[in-house]
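Lab notebook: predicted structure, single chain.

Context: the supervisor wants predicted structures on file for every construct in the current expression panel, including those that have not yet been purified. This is the next one on the list. No modifications to the sequence; it matches the entry in the shared construct table.
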Amino acid sequence: MLDKEVIVIGAGLAGSEAAWQVANSGVPVKLVEMRPIKSTPAHHTGEFGELVCSNSFGALSPDRAAGLLQKELRIFKSLIVQTADKFAVPAGGALAVDRSKFSIALTDVLSNHPLIEIKRFEQLDLPSKDNITILATGPLTAEELSYEIQAFTGIDACHFFDAASPIIYGDTIDEEIVFKASRYDKGDPAYLNCPMNENDYIHFRNLLKKKTCC
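Prediction complete. Output recorded below exactly as produced.
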């Protein structure tokens, strides 16, 4: 067993899984998460592993890359995949989850692990070299910390590409227009498809830009 704790910075999907695997190996972990002390334009809660893009983990079938990865993670008793399986929702041939229940469950399990200490603050610098540190801060890393990462690695810039899918209320959808279909024609029809002509699409796009613009 290590003499010192392992520090994990960021409690998204990667950080949550890292903290779980390290702690289950018998090593104490300090898991640092800035939310809800400081939020981001993409997040809405302070829960761990909050899904801000899609609620889907990709195809379930192991003949697809995502499905094969899920199968491998189950072998290693992945907390993320176990929790996703527990709170799965119909998604055709994909593994998709109830966002809220998924992240709340992750937070609860990690917060109650005897070897995981939760710290809620914004990490602005790299911890001492005396500790093993796992950086899992993702695309919304604080500027101060990103500069330190650049200085430590010697890399001029870190580039992240991410997107947040728009979320709409189900009762705003005209069910006389939409139709259900499966993903890639596999599994049950679980996806609502909203047909649009060119004018509808441009109008929808403009409304989204207006809602999400800075």
